[in-house]
Design goal:
The protein has 17 helices and two strands. It is mainly α and about 450 residues long. Strands 1-2 form a two-stranded antiparallel sheet.
Length: about 450
C-alpha cells in the first residue's frame, strides 16, 4: 500500500513549527561543534578520544533513528518528539557542566540518541502532506537543518571565546525553547494515517482488507520494550528490505551518503594540501556550501519537485555531484605561491577561485538528493509504518557517515589527496545508476 493518506489535513499547517523544530535542533547541535576538540583536550584527551566524541554521535544515530521512528508509529509523533527534545536539553546541560572526558563522551552519546529524531520529523511530514507536496516539505526541513548547522558553529565559536560552558548552556536553553514551541504548536498527526487491517483467516470470512484510523498506543515501558526487541532482532530492517523498492532506496541512500562523506570528511585536508588553507578559510568554504544547500532546498527545490519526479531529481543531483567531485580532482597540487596561509581576504578569494566555481555544483546536487530520496521512500512505504521505514533509511545514512570518514582517511593517507574525491565521484555515479532500478510508486 502507498503512503498516501485519505484523512483530512489540519486547518492550520504544522509545517512552520516543524521547520522551527528542525532549525533549533541543529542550531543547538552546531553551537557545541567548535569547542568539542578543545574542551576534550582540557581533560587530556588524545586525538583518538576526540574523534570518538564525533563517531559516538553518528553511531548512536545509526542505532536509534529506527527506534524513534518505529516508536512514533506506535505511540504517536508528538510524544516522541517532545521526549527527544526535552532529553536533548538535558544532554546539552550535561555537556556544559562536564568536568572530565568520560562525562563529555556520555553527553555526546546521549545527544546522539536523543537527536536521532529525523525519521520522526519526516514521518510527521508524511502524515500531514499530500504526496505531490511531500518532496517540497522534505526540502524545507532539510533547509532548516542546513541553516541551523551554518549558524550554530559560528555562534558557538563566539560563545566559546567567553567560556567553554557557554555553548552547552545556550544549546540547552534552545532545546527548552524548542520543547515549549512543540508542546504548544504541534498536535498529534498519527490519526491522519489509515491503518490496514487484513481479513481473518477463519473459514467463511469473506471481507477484504479494511482501513481504520490509526490509534496511538500508551507511551510506556511495555511498548518501548517491544520496539527495542524488534530492533535488536533486526525485524524492522528485514520487513523494510522485503519491499524491493524500499530495499533499493535504502541501498542508494547508504551508497550516496558513504560517497559524499568521503569528500566531506577530508575536504579540509584537501584544501590545506592544494591551497594551504587553514581552519578559518575552510570554515568560510563550508559556510558557502551550506548557504547554497539552504537556498536550493528552501526555494528552488519546491519548484523543481512540481515538474519532475523525486527519482529524476535524485538522479540528476547524483550526476551533478559526481561531476563536481571529478572537477575537484583535476585541481593541481599546491603551487609554490601557496607556501603560506592567505594573508588577506582578497588573496583568499583569488586563491579559492576553483572552489568558488565547483562547490556550488556539489552543493546543488546534494540539496536535490536527500529530500528526493526521503519523499520517494515515504511514498513507497506502508502508511502505518512511515516512521519505521524512514528510520531504516536514515539509519543506513548514519552508518555510512561512520564508515565513510575511516575509508576517506585511509585513502587520503595511502593514495593521495584526490583519492577520497575519486571514491565520492564513483560511489555517487553508481548510486545514480541504481536509481533507475527503483520501481515506480503505486
Amino acid at each position: 500500500m502507498s503512503a498516501e493518506s485519505t484523512a483530512e489535513r489540519p486547518a492550520r499547517s504544522p509545517l512552520p513549527t516543524l521547520f522551527l523544530t528542525a532549525f533549533i535542533d541543529l542550531l543547538g547541535f552546531g553551537l557545541t561543534i567548535p569547542l568539542l576538540p578543545f574542551y576534550a583536550q582540557r581533560y587530556g584527551a588524545s586525538a583518538l578520544q576526540v574523534s570518538l566524541l564525533f563517531a559516538s554521535f553518528s553511531a548512536m544515530g545509526f542505532l536509534f533513528v529506527p527506534v524513534w521512528g518505529e516508536l512514533s508509529d506506535r505511540v504517536g509523533r508528538r510524544p516522541v518528539l517532545l521526549t527527544s527534545i526535552l532529553a536533548t536539553a538535558f544532554s546539552m546541560a550535561l555537556l556544559a557542566v562536564a568536568d572530565s572526558y568520560p562525562l563529555l563522551l556520555l553527553s555526546r552519546i546521549l545527544q546522539g540518541i536523543m537527536t536521532a529524531n529525523l525519521a520522526t520529523l519526516q514521518a510527521y511530514i508524511a502524515d500531514v502532506t499530500k504526496p505531490e507536496d511531500r518532496g517540497r516539505a522534505m526540502g524545507m526541513i532539510g533547509a532548516a537543518f542546513g541553516l541551523g548547522f551554518i549558524l550554530g558553529p559560528f555562534f558557538g565559536g563566539v560563545l566559546a571565546a567567553y567560556s567553554f560552558r557557554a555553548p552547552g548552556l545556550a544549546a540547552a536553553a534552545l532545546a527548552l525553547l524548542n520543547f515549549g514551541l512543540a508542546l504548544r504548536n504541534l498536535p498529534e498527526s498519527l490519526h491522519l494515517r489509515k491503518k490496514v487491517i487484513e481479513p481473518s483467516d477463519a473459514p467463511g470470512y469473506r471481507d477484504g482488507p479494511i482501513e481504520v484510523e490509526a490509534q496511538p498506543e500508551p507511551f510506556g515501558a511495555k511498548v518501548i520494550g517491544r520496539v527495542l526487541l524488534r530492533q535488536a532482532t533486526l525485524k524492522p530492517l528485514r520487513e523494510a528490505m522485503a519491499n524491493p523498492a524500499i530495499a533499493m532506496l535504502v541501498t542508494v541512500f547508504f551508497l550516496q551518503a558513504f560517497a559524499f562523506t568521503n569528500f566531506e570528511s577530508t575536504f579540509a585536508l584537501f584544501a590545506q594540501q592544494r591551497f594551504n588553507f587553514g581552519s578559518r578559510e575552510t570554515g568560510f568554504l563550508f559556510g558557502y556550501v551550506g548557504l547554497v544547500v539552504v537556498i536550493v532546498q528552501g526555494g528552488i527545490y519546491g519548484r523543481l519537485s512540481r515538474k519532475h519526479s523525486e527519482l529524476n531529481l535524485a538522479r540528476a543531483g547524483m550526476l551533478v555531484t559526481s561531476v563536481a567531485m571529478l572537477l575537484l580532482m583535476l585541481i593541481p597540487g599546491r603551487s609554490a605561491l601557496y607556501d603560506s596561509v592567505p594573508s588577506t581576504p582578497a588573496e583568499f578569494a583569488r586563491r579559492a577561485l576553483p572552489m568558488w566555481l565547483i562547490l556550488p555544483f556539489s552543493s546543488f546536487g546534494q540539496a536535490l538528493i536527500n529530500p528526493s530520496l526521503s519523499a520517494a521512500t515515504s511514498k513507497r512505504g506502508s502508511a502505518d509504518k512511515q516512521g519505521g521505514t524512514l528510520g531504516v533509511q536514515q539509519s543506513a545514512g548514519a552508518l555510512a557517515r561512520v564508515i565513510g570518514p575511516i575509508t576517506a582517511g585511509l585513502a587520503f593517507d595511502h593514495l593521495g589527496a584526490s583519492a577520497p574525491m575519486a571514491l565520492a565521484a564513483v560511489g555517487t555515479a553508481i548510486a545514480a545508476l541504481l536509481v533507475g532500478r527503483i520501481p515506480a510508486a503505486k
